[in-house]
Amino acid sequence: MMSTFAPARHLTRCCISRLSCARFVSTFVNVVREQNNAYTKNALKCYEESKDEVDRKLDPVFNTNALVLFMDGTVDAPKGQLSLNVVKMLTEIVRQIQAVPLVTVDVTEHPAVTGYTVAKSGSEVTPHLYYNGNFYGDHDRILSKYKSGELRKIGTNKRSEGAFAGELPIGINQFTVCTSGDYLVAALVTNRNFKMLGEGSLELRL
Protein backbone atom coordinates (compact mmCIF):
# COMPACT_ATOMS: atom_id res chain seq x y z
CA MET A 1 0.00 0.00 0.00
CA MET A 2 1.39 3.39 -1.03
CA SER A 3 2.14 5.73 1.81
CA THR A 4 0.22 8.97 1.94
CA PHE A 5 3.58 10.68 2.42
CA ALA A 6 4.98 9.42 -0.93
CA PRO A 7 3.95 12.53 -2.92
CA ALA A 8 5.55 14.74 -0.30
CA ARG A 9 8.79 12.74 -0.43
CA HIS A 10 8.76 12.93 -4.24
CA LEU A 11 8.23 16.69 -4.10
CA THR A 12 11.08 17.03 -1.62
CA ARG A 13 13.44 15.05 -3.88
CA CYS A 14 12.48 17.25 -6.86
CA CYS A 15 13.12 20.42 -4.87
CA ILE A 16 16.50 19.15 -3.70
CA SER A 17 17.41 18.12 -7.25
CA ARG A 18 16.47 21.52 -8.66
CA LEU A 19 18.31 23.30 -5.86
CA SER A 20 21.44 21.23 -6.52
CA CYS A 21 21.22 22.01 -10.24
CA ALA A 22 20.83 25.72 -9.53
CA ARG A 23 23.84 25.66 -7.20
CA PHE A 24 25.91 23.85 -9.83
CA VAL A 25 25.02 26.41 -12.50
CA SER A 26 25.77 29.27 -10.12
CA THR A 27 29.11 27.73 -9.17
CA PHE A 28 30.01 27.11 -12.81
CA VAL A 29 29.17 30.70 -13.78
CA ASN A 30 31.24 32.04 -10.91
CA VAL A 31 34.22 29.87 -11.87
CA VAL A 32 34.03 31.02 -15.49
CA ARG A 33 33.75 34.64 -14.38
CA GLU A 34 36.79 34.27 -12.12
CA GLN A 35 38.80 32.67 -14.93
CA ASN A 36 37.82 35.44 -17.32
CA ASN A 37 38.76 38.08 -14.77
CA ALA A 38 42.12 36.42 -14.18
CA TYR A 39 42.81 36.20 -17.92
CA THR A 40 41.81 39.83 -18.46
CA LYS A 41 44.06 40.95 -15.61
CA ASN A 42 46.98 39.02 -17.11
CA ALA A 43 46.19 40.38 -20.59
CA LEU A 44 46.25 43.96 -19.34
CA LYS A 45 49.56 43.26 -17.60
CA CYS A 46 51.05 41.83 -20.82
CA TYR A 47 49.83 44.85 -22.74
CA GLU A 48 51.33 47.32 -20.26
CA GLU A 49 54.67 45.50 -20.40
CA SER A 50 54.85 45.84 -24.20
CA LYS A 51 52.56 48.84 -24.67
CA ASP A 52 54.80 50.83 -27.02
CA GLU A 53 55.33 47.87 -29.33
CA VAL A 54 51.68 46.81 -29.35
CA ASP A 55 50.46 50.37 -29.92
CA ARG A 56 52.92 50.79 -32.78
CA LYS A 57 51.54 47.68 -34.46
CA LEU A 58 47.83 48.11 -33.81
CA ASP A 59 47.17 51.87 -33.76
CA PRO A 60 47.69 52.19 -37.55
CA VAL A 61 44.86 49.69 -38.10
CA PHE A 62 42.39 52.34 -36.92
CA ASN A 63 44.02 55.03 -39.06
CA THR A 64 43.37 53.18 -42.30
CA ASN A 65 40.22 51.14 -41.60
CA ALA A 66 36.79 52.40 -40.60
CA LEU A 67 35.51 49.09 -39.23
CA VAL A 68 37.71 46.93 -36.98
CA LEU A 69 36.61 43.81 -35.11
CA PHE A 70 38.69 42.30 -32.31
CA MET A 71 37.41 38.74 -32.06
CA ASP A 72 38.28 35.26 -30.80
CA GLY A 73 39.63 33.45 -33.85
CA THR A 74 39.08 34.45 -37.46
CA VAL A 75 36.07 35.03 -39.68
CA ASP A 76 36.65 31.59 -41.20
CA ALA A 77 37.03 29.90 -37.82
CA PRO A 78 35.64 31.83 -34.82
CA LYS A 79 36.80 30.36 -31.50
CA GLY A 80 33.84 31.52 -29.44
CA GLN A 81 30.07 31.70 -29.74
CA LEU A 82 30.00 35.45 -29.13
CA SER A 83 32.47 36.11 -31.94
CA LEU A 84 30.55 33.77 -34.23
CA ASN A 85 27.33 35.64 -33.49
CA VAL A 86 28.89 39.01 -34.32
CA VAL A 87 30.30 37.67 -37.59
CA LYS A 88 26.83 36.39 -38.49
CA MET A 89 25.28 39.77 -37.72
CA LEU A 90 27.86 41.65 -39.77
CA THR A 91 27.44 39.35 -42.77
CA GLU A 92 23.66 39.52 -42.43
CA ILE A 93 23.54 43.28 -42.93
CA VAL A 94 25.29 43.07 -46.31
CA ARG A 95 22.08 41.66 -47.73
CA GLN A 96 20.66 45.14 -47.40
CA ILE A 97 23.68 47.45 -47.56
CA GLN A 98 27.27 47.40 -48.73
CA ALA A 99 29.28 47.57 -45.55
CA VAL A 100 32.55 49.40 -45.30
CA PRO A 101 35.69 47.21 -45.41
CA LEU A 102 36.09 45.21 -42.20
CA VAL A 103 39.41 44.34 -40.58
CA THR A 104 39.47 41.55 -38.01
CA VAL A 105 42.08 41.04 -35.30
CA ASP A 106 42.42 37.67 -33.56
CA VAL A 107 42.81 38.39 -29.85
CA THR A 108 43.80 34.79 -29.13
CA GLU A 109 47.13 35.27 -30.92
CA HIS A 110 48.62 37.00 -27.87
CA PRO A 111 47.29 38.17 -24.47
CA ALA A 112 48.68 41.66 -25.13
CA VAL A 113 46.25 42.02 -28.04
CA THR A 114 43.36 41.29 -25.68
CA GLY A 115 44.82 43.76 -23.20
CA TYR A 116 45.04 46.39 -25.93
CA THR A 117 41.37 46.25 -26.87
CA VAL A 118 40.20 45.89 -23.25
CA ALA A 119 42.14 49.03 -22.33
CA LYS A 120 40.88 50.89 -25.39
CA SER A 121 37.22 49.87 -25.09
CA GLY A 122 36.73 49.57 -21.35
CA SER A 123 34.91 46.28 -21.97
CA GLU A 124 36.42 43.09 -20.57
CA VAL A 125 34.59 40.59 -22.81
CA THR A 126 35.42 40.30 -26.51
CA PRO A 127 34.45 40.62 -29.33
CA HIS A 128 34.86 44.39 -29.67
CA LEU A 129 33.75 46.33 -32.73
CA TYR A 130 35.19 49.75 -33.57
CA TYR A 131 33.79 52.21 -36.08
CA ASN A 132 35.84 55.20 -37.26
CA GLY A 133 38.30 54.62 -34.44
CA ASN A 134 35.65 54.66 -31.72
CA PHE A 135 34.40 51.71 -29.68
CA TYR A 136 31.07 50.69 -31.22
CA GLY A 137 30.15 47.85 -28.90
CA ASP A 138 30.73 44.39 -27.49
CA HIS A 139 28.52 41.40 -28.32
CA ASP A 140 25.50 42.50 -26.29
CA ARG A 141 25.57 46.09 -27.54
CA ILE A 142 26.04 44.96 -31.14
CA LEU A 143 23.13 42.53 -30.75
CA SER A 144 20.96 45.33 -29.38
CA LYS A 145 21.87 47.61 -32.29
CA TYR A 146 21.30 44.76 -34.73
CA LYS A 147 17.79 44.19 -33.38
CA SER A 148 16.96 47.90 -33.45
CA GLY A 149 18.27 48.31 -37.00
CA GLU A 150 21.01 50.73 -35.97
CA LEU A 151 23.74 48.32 -37.09
CA ARG A 152 22.51 48.67 -40.68
CA LYS A 153 23.60 52.32 -40.66
CA ILE A 154 27.22 51.20 -40.95
CA GLY A 155 28.33 51.59 -44.57
CA THR A 156 26.43 52.89 -47.57
CA ASN A 157 23.56 51.80 -49.77
CA LYS A 158 25.75 51.84 -52.86
CA ARG A 159 26.06 48.46 -54.56
CA SER A 160 29.13 47.07 -56.30
CA GLU A 161 30.01 48.03 -59.84
CA GLY A 162 32.03 46.39 -62.59
CA ALA A 163 32.62 42.63 -62.34
CA PHE A 164 30.54 42.40 -59.17
CA ALA A 165 27.77 44.77 -60.29
CA GLY A 166 24.65 44.52 -58.18
CA GLU A 167 26.26 42.36 -55.50
CA LEU A 168 26.53 43.23 -51.84
CA PRO A 169 30.03 42.14 -50.75
CA ILE A 170 31.74 42.80 -47.48
CA GLY A 171 35.48 43.26 -47.74
CA ILE A 172 37.41 41.55 -44.98
CA ASN A 173 41.04 42.09 -44.07
CA GLN A 174 42.37 39.71 -41.46
CA PHE A 175 45.02 41.32 -39.27
CA THR A 176 47.14 38.66 -37.61
CA VAL A 177 49.42 39.36 -34.68
CA CYS A 178 51.94 36.65 -33.84
CA THR A 179 54.94 36.36 -31.57
CA SER A 180 58.52 36.22 -32.75
CA GLY A 181 60.82 35.81 -29.79
CA ASP A 182 59.96 38.61 -27.39
CA TYR A 183 58.56 40.82 -30.12
CA LEU A 184 55.12 41.20 -31.67
CA VAL A 185 54.92 40.98 -35.43
CA ALA A 186 51.79 42.10 -37.27
CA ALA A 187 50.80 41.63 -40.90
CA LEU A 188 47.77 41.91 -43.12
CA VAL A 189 47.48 38.40 -44.47
CA THR A 190 44.24 38.31 -46.45
CA ASN A 191 41.97 40.53 -48.46
CA ARG A 192 38.76 38.82 -49.47
CA ASN A 193 35.18 39.48 -50.48
CA PHE A 194 32.23 37.39 -49.38
CA LYS A 195 29.12 37.16 -51.53
CA MET A 196 25.90 36.05 -49.86
CA LEU A 197 24.46 33.00 -51.63
CA GLY A 198 21.55 32.23 -49.35
CA GLU A 199 20.58 31.77 -45.75
CA GLY A 200 23.83 31.24 -43.85
CA SER A 201 25.89 30.61 -47.01
CA LEU A 202 28.97 32.48 -48.16
CA GLU A 203 31.01 32.30 -51.33
CA LEU A 204 34.67 33.24 -51.04
CA ARG A 205 36.08 35.35 -53.85
CA LEU A 206 39.86 35.78 -53.89
Kindly report the spatial arrangement of strands forming the biggest sheet.
4-3-1-2-5-6-7
Count the DSSP helices: 5
Unreliable spans: 157-173, 176-206
Tally of strands: 7
* CATH fold field value: Glutaredoxin
Specify the CATH class: Alpha Beta
Question: Radius of gyration over alpha carbons?
Answer: 22 Å
Instruction: Provide the structure class.
Output: alpha/beta
- The end-to-end distance, rounded to whole angstroms, is 76 Å
Summed over residues and divided by their number, the pLDDT gives a mean of: 72
Beta content: 15-25%
Instruction: Please give the largest β-sheet.
Output: 7 strands, mixed
Number of domains as seen in the coordinates? 1
Run of helices and strands: HHEHEHEEHEEE
Q: In one word, what is the shape?
A: globular
Per CATH, which architecture?
3-Layer(aba) Sandwich
Helix content: 40-55%
Q: CATH homologous superfamily name? A: Glutaredoxin
InterPro entries: Thioredoxin-like_sf
Protein name: Glutaredoxin protein, putative
Organism: Perkinsus marinus (strain ATCC 50983 / TXsc)
